């Protein structure tokens, strides 16, 4: 029987949050999903209108070079369109980076607990995974990353805000870290939750990219822009890195509906600002509610919070699901007693905490 290459033998499938469809099929309950860090505010009306118009052209291949989207992203990020590449979600870009710049005999450093795509991409390339811990604030430990750099290191993946903890890298520690990273090592920072950060000391990568340092920032339109179903993410890096990624990427990896919806979403920054403001307020409400109940959590700068239940999180998730709220036990992250909950509009959170209290009383 044909076997996959050896590096894939320890690879396990990605474990997503439970979908509302599967919950309904299993239980008959029309639940509210708080499991996958999606936006319960939904996309901009401009994005929806643009997506509907794209349906009139489903017989045509999408654009291979997403020039309009690249220009909009360039304006928002302070870079040029030549610095940018889009892909079928940030996941595709993270995998593409690993496949383009690493292979057997190389090492790739990434934190844990964190997003599983880094380990997945590492094993796909045949490179050796090198795992580092988080710091006390729930962000990747940059000193540990430096301590694990070797002559074989090709890529360092970092996540800021980190999923599932919500911790961020700060500018001063980032600058000190980057000054000691060898120029042969590519540093990739996953900023999927960038728009939810309010801390003025949050590490920014724009100047490093413009200076030509081996840095890639990866973002998505799945979170604050609420286009998760359409799968569109983007990355920015110095020109030679982007040119390599564009060469390797599939030509039509971003579909026409996603491309048009992205244009609509990116032009409606007034709506984005509203969602950001309400999300941050709801996050503070959630933190206060968990604190009042005596639960500890990492200070989150994202649109989710992960709390320590001191109990079996899978059990809690099952009971909350039966009350109409789908949450994410952090077992797959190696945190079997932690539960991750998406930030939602406050009226939804009030209903969630009523259900949460009923589970506590059992």
Automatic annotation (TrEMBL):
Question: Which keywords belong to this entry?
Answer: Amino-acid biosynthesis, Aminotransferase, Histidine biosynthesis, Pyridoxal phosphate, Transferase
The biological process GO terms on file are:
L-histidine biosynthetic process
Write down the EC number.
2.6.1.9
**Sorted alphabetically, which InterPro entries does this protein's record hold?**
Aminotransferase_I/II_large, HisP_aminotrans, HistidinolP_aminotransfase, PyrdxlP-dep_Trfase, PyrdxlP-dep_Trfase_major, PyrdxlP-dep_Trfase_small
Signal peptide (from-to): none
| Example of a GO MF term | histidinol-phosphate transaminase activity
| Named cofactor requirement(s) | pyridoxal 5'-phosphate
List residues modified as N6-(pyridoxal phosphate)lysine: 223
Could you tell me what reaction this enzyme catalyses? Answer: L-histidinol phosphate + 2-oxoglutarate = 3-(imidazol-4-yl)-2-oxopropyl phosphate + L-glutamate
Task: Using the record's annotation, list all stretches that form the Aminotransferase class I/classII large domain.
Answer: 31-344
Pathway participation? Amino-acid biosynthesis; L-histidine biosynthesis; L-histidine from 5-phospho-alpha-D-ribose 1-diphosphate: step 7/9
Family annotation (SUPFAM superfamilies): PLP-dependent transferases
Keyword Ligase appears in the UniProt entry: no
Q: Which Gene3D superfamilies match?
A: Aspartate Aminotransferase, domain 1 (3.90.1150.10), Type I PLP-dependent aspartate aminotransferase-like (Major domain) (3.40.640.10)
Family per similarity comment: Belongs to the class-II pyridoxal-phosphate-dependent aminotransferase family. Histidinol-phosphate aminotransferase subfamily.
Q: Cite the record's note on assembly.
A: Homodimer.
User: What is the protein's given name?
Assistant: Histidinol-phosphate aminotransferase
Q: Which species is this record about? A: Sulfobacillus thermosulfidooxidans (strain DSM 9293 / VKM B-1269 / AT-1)
Q: Which gene encodes it?
A: hisC
